């Protein structure tokens, strides 16, 4: 199999910097015409991103990004996608949205389709950076909710530790000591589980009352039923996300249990359930807008956002369920 051509190969062939290649390919005005043409010729000769430069399937003045979402039926990801689409629309960009059903195989299939047909990829991935690098053909990648290491990658970091600590503090202040968690049903515990454990340990409480939940209303209801059967003394629950929490509220009501429930996400949907859902809330509009802005900077070769500028902090939003 031939070696994958990267933006660095184009830069070497044209005798310019990586940033100059990015500016030339994105039709930025800060470089002279001869240099731009030399870069375009090198990209075409090397076969770099053939869908745009060798086969001409997309106009050179069109910017397209691939937005990869694990589950569009989950309102949290729908809200993030809507924010990203709004931010991209303001820039006149085209957006291709893919739902991977939270499947690594679907992630690979998606990248095989869009990896050479867009200017950047933004979204949620379980694939390793090595796998992502192999299938994104040298273009910028913005990862949401996880760290990055490759130089052409960036990430939007979700910082939820303090928000979860506030949630546990609130439950303890209300007199709860037997607090459980409904985590996701994946093999490995989530970051939220670690934040929950740290918050519980800070109060000298055991964080061992945990059940895994499929990320749906029914999944939350089923997980709460299982947890209460194993740990009937639980009086409060923190959940991996709001959808699971809504299922837990339903199961608690059906069983006649007076249970405090706190979710994580801050969905608008949480305001229409009864009781209204207390949650550790994220600004989904900020997540989507930051992801698009970072993709724009990476494509243009500008200095990317860094540090706290790429962090979205979760905060406790008190309603009626806890």
Automatic annotation (TrEMBL):
The keyword Transport does not apply. The keyword DNA-binding applies. Residues 5-59 form the HTH lacI-type domain. Gene3D superfamilies: 3.40.50.2300, lambda repressor-like DNA-binding domains. Keywords: DNA-binding, Transcription, Transcription regulation. One of its GO terms (molecular function) is DNA-binding transcription factor activity. PANTHER family: LACI-RELATED TRANSCRIPTIONAL REPRESSOR (PTHR30146), TRANSCRIPTIONAL REGULATORY PROTEIN (PTHR30146:SF138). This is LacI family transcriptional regulator. It comes from Lentzea aerocolonigenes.
